[in-house]
User: Fold this.
Amino acid sequence: MSETLYRKYRPKIFANVSEQAHVKEVLQNQLKSDTLTHAYLFSGPRGVGKTTIARLLAKAANCDNGKGGEPCLTCESCLEIERGATMDLFEIDAASHTGVDHVREMIIENVRFAPSRLKKKVFIIDEVHMLSTSAFNALLKTLEEPPAYALFILATTELHKVPETIVSRCQRFDFHRVPLASIVERLKGLVKAEKAKVAQDVLETIARKSEGCLRDAESLLGQVLAVDDPALVLPPSCAQESLQFLTHTTSGHAAEAIAVVDKAMERGVSMESLMDEILTQLRHALLKSLDYPAEALYESTIEKNLNELAHTLGAARLQELLRSCLGDRELFRLDQFPQLALEVFAAQYSLTTISNSSIPHPSTPDPQLSDATPLPKAQTKIKEPETGAKINTTIAQIKEKWMECCKSLESQSATLPLVLQNADVCALHGTQLHVKFPFQFHVHQINELKNKRLIEEALGKFFSEPLCIIANYAPADADAVVAELIQEFGGLPA
Assistant:
């Protein structure tokens, strides 16, 4: 069985480790000045270099001829560690050995004796957060009074699960996700080393799908190199369809947007993959609209169009799009109509009236996307009835039956129930029922004459009294919304 790429090309010196400069610099300075501490805690996402740097630290700390904080790779100590032939280096997988007995056997018993060959006896404990409480207590006693020759390196992907008593006795380093550009450069180097050829867009797709995990990217590249056609490993790219869909939708062309979805389905693109790509592009555009220096995710033409989309729509409308898109994901549960979520999203957003003036859409490589027309102006506001009429229905009764009333509209409209369920039923003044919506385009949709009549007919049937719905716009706090959206997608890029 051939060796995986990430094992075959695991960095042998600190200089070859991608990113994590803040960790490498401190450790190398300590190695040069002989000021290593007895215990280190490496925390961060999986596949970003924690175990690799732990092994390099073990090698450099025991190297006989190290220079500049790097292991020489030629001395007997370096060669023994590289071959896995030393009895002074212990690697423990805490995920498989969580109990106190294993800690006693592997660590407490062995740490009592000086190293047989190396200068330091090293204990690397991976996924340390998986240890049991009793195992942590046993480890704590050793960390409190370790022998001078002992070196502990703990690694975890879930720092919050490591007891504070353990954290406080270690020098802690937080590892970051590897940026897309660095992953692409690393993959290029591996392709060159393998004397193979892989297209730039394939490397970029691999980098995006790895989401900052370099090990995943290297594993996926290994699969691509093992086949003749990368499409056999990588799902069909839908970046271009996503951009076309968003351009048509935000230009008011629902039919064209839905046509893009149909063509993507014919090409074998998963609807969930397309929705995820749309969410990724919306998030990317949102960060651009906020002037956040987000790294490029796509080739230059798509990046240019997303930049135009960001500055054309602005942060507020991009927030609306993201929230609407996230809400429509629930429709993916309808297996018989996998495209329904995207169709509803396109119809709901592009068919709503956007007030004041038309908004030009960004240019795209597809010439079919140059047919944008101005969106219709806001409809004339309907004259509302007087508020003095007396009715027996109370606001509490309306709130109690609101969801049931919304559901009754499903046979007449696919989108109205979804929109109304997001409403805040806030006041009843005479026959006027006031409801608030977090998005302006929902207000426009409710105030359309046809929709307004449907809703009021449903209200009349449910409460046996004439009620007039008054839709109001109550925007959420912009900073809170942006923070929530960014958190939903895993935080800001490193």
Notes: Confidence is low (pLDDT under 50) at residues 353-370, 372-387. Strands lie at 39-43, 89-93, 121-126, 150-156, 171-174, 424-429, 432-437, 468-473. The domain at 395-473 is CATH 3.30.300.180 (GMP Synthetase; Chain A, domain 3).
